[in-house]
Write a structure and sequence with these properties.
alpha/beta, elongated, Metallo-beta-lactamase, Chain A, 5-stranded mixed sheet, Rossmann fold
Length: 395
C-alpha cells in the first residue's frame, strides 16, 4: 500500500515489524525496521530504490496495484546493498528496458551480486541532474563510504526532498512514517545506535559530506532515508546530530565492560563502577557483561562514554573468546579521543590485562598505565586498587 510523502511523492516500501537481526546476525533489531522505497509521479515517473529480497514478490505485486509498471520512466538505485536492491532483479524482469541511474561503483555492486543482466545503466556523479518535468529535477550526490563505496543520495527540487539512503536512517518501524509521529525517545535511541554501529567507522567522511551538502545550498524540507522515519518536522535536526556525533562525540559517562568465568572479574567490574561513582557522582556509570548484553547496545554506550574499563580473566594465556570478538568489533568502529583501562583475574600466568591493554591501544584508545590484576578471587587489597584505576579514567 502506498503512503503519501509529499506532493506527487509516495512511499512504496515495506515495514518489517518482525525483523530481529540485520547484516546477518551482526546488528540487533529491537523495534522493527523498514525498507523505504519511493515513487515520484511528475511528468516522468521515477522509482527510488526497492526492498529486500524476502519481500520482492509482495513489493512487485503491490507496485503493480498502484501503477502500470510500463509507466515507470527511470529507476534510481541509490545503493547496491541487497536490502535496497534485492527486489530490483524481479522488477527489471518486468520492465527490462528501463534505465537504472546509479554510481559507477553501484554498477559493479549490482552486477557483482546479480550478474550481468544487460540493464541500461546510466552512471551519475555529484551534481548530475535529471529532469522529471513540472519544473522539477533530481540532483545526484555521491555518498561514498556512507556506508558503501557505491552509495549516493538523490535530491528532488520543488518539493525539496533529500532521498538520503542509509544516511540519517534508523532500524525502527513506524507505521505512520514521519518523525513527528514517532516515539521521540525510541527514535533517537535507534538513530544513535544506527550511527554508532554502521556509520561511525566513516565519521570523517560524514563530516566532509555534510560540509559538501551544505555548500550545494539545496533547501531541504524533508529527508527521506531508506530505513526508519522520514524527517519532515525540522528535518535538519538529524543533520545537526550527525555533525555532533561525527566529531569524536562523548558525554560525561564511563562504561565498564567485562567477561567472567567464576565471577572474580565481575566483582572487579562492580568495584570499579562503585569507585567511579564515588569519585565523580555526576558522571554516568554503566556496567555490561559482553556475554549477557547485546553488543550493539553496549557499543552505543561506549560511543557516549569519555572512558571505558574492560575486563577479562586469563584463559589459556589469553582472554575469553567472547571478549576477544567484542574487542575486534570495538576496533572496527574506530572511536576517537576516549580513554581506557584494563582489569582481570587470573590463576597462574595472568596475561589477560596485558593483552587487553594492547587490544585497546590497537582500537585507538588512550590506555591508562593503571590496571587491576587479581590472582584467584579479589580480596580487599585488590579491590582497594580500583580507586587508582577509576581516578585515571576520570582525569
Amino acid at each position: 500500500m502506498r503512503k503519501q510523502v509529499k506532493g506527487n511523492v509516495s512511499w512504496v516500501g515495506y515495514i518489517d515489524w518482525d525483523l530481529e537481526t540485520f547484516h546477518g546476525d551482526d546488528y540487533s533489531i529491537m523495534n522493527g525496521s523498514s525498507q523505504n522505497a519511493y515513487l515520484i509521479e511528475e511528468e516522468k515517473t521515477v522509482l527510488i530504490d526497492t526492498v529486500w529480497v524476502p519481500h520482492k514478490q509482495e513489493f512487485t505485486e503491490n507496485l503493480k496495484k498502484e501503477i502500470d509498471l510500463d509507466k515507470i520512466d527511470f529507476v534510481i538505485a541509490n545503493h547496491g546493498e541487497c536490502d535496497h536492491s534485492g527486489s530490483l532483479p524481479a522488477l527489471m524482469e518486468l520492465i527490462p528496458d528501463k534505465p537504472v541511474y546509479c554510481t559507477a561503483n553501484a554498477v559493479k555492486s549490482l552486477e557483482g551480486q546479480y550478474g550481468k543482466r544487460g540493464w541500461d545503466f546510466h552512471v551519475v556523479k555529484t551534481g548530475d541532474t535529471l529532469d522529471i518535468g513540472n519544473g522539477k529535477t533530481l540532483t545526484f550526490i555521491e555518498m561514498p563510504m556512507l556506508h558503501w563505496p557505491d552509495s549516493m543520495a538523490t535530491y528532488m527540487s520543488g518539493d525539496n526532498i533529500l532521498f538520503s539512503n542509509d544516511a540519517f536512517g534508523q532500524h525502527f518501524a513506524v507505521e505512520e512514517l514521519f518523525n513527528d509521529k514517532a516515539d521521540q525517545c525510541l527514535l533517537y535511541k535507534e538513530a544513535v545506535k544506527y550511527f554508532v554501529n554502521i556509520l561511525n567507522p566513516f565519521a570523517p567522511m560524514v563530516t566532509r559530506k555534510l560540509a559538501e551538502i551544505e555548500k550545494l545550498g539545496l533547501p531541504i524540507d524533508m529527508i527521506a532515508p531508506s530505513h526508519g522515519v522520514i524527517w519532515r518536522e525540522d528535518p535538519m535536526q538529524i543533520v545537526r546530530k550527525y555533525a555532533e556525533w561525527a566529531d569524536a562525540y562523548q558525554e560525561d559517562q564511563v562504561t565498564v565492560v567485562y567477561d567472567t568465568m567464576w565471577e572474580g572479574t565481575a566483582k572487579l567490574a562492580r568495584k570499579i563502577a562503585e569507585e567511579l561513582h564515588k569519585q565523580s557522582p555526576e558522571t554516568v556509570v554503566k556496567v555490561f557483561s559482553v556475554a549477557k548484553t547485546d553488543k550493539n547496545e553496549i557499543m552505543t554506550e561506549v560511543f557516549k562514554s569519555k572512558a571505558i574499563a574492560v575486563g577479562s580473566p586469563t584463559v589459556v594465556n589469553s582472554i575469553l573468546s567472547g571478549m576477544a570478538g567484542w574487542l575486534e568489533f570495538l576496533k572496527q568502529l574506530k572511536f576517537k579521543k576516549k580513554k581506557a583501562a584494563a582489569f582481570g583475574c587470573y590463576g597462574w600466568s595472568g596475561e589477560s590485562v596485558k593483552i587487553l591493554k594492547e587490544k585497546l591501544a590497537e582500537a585507538g584508545f588512550d590506555v591508562a598505565e593503571e590496571e587491576l590484576r587479581s590472582q584467584w578471587n579479589p580480596d580487599e587489597e585488590d579491590l582497594d586498587k580500583a580507586a587508582a584505576l577509576a581516578e585515571a579514567l576520570l582525569k
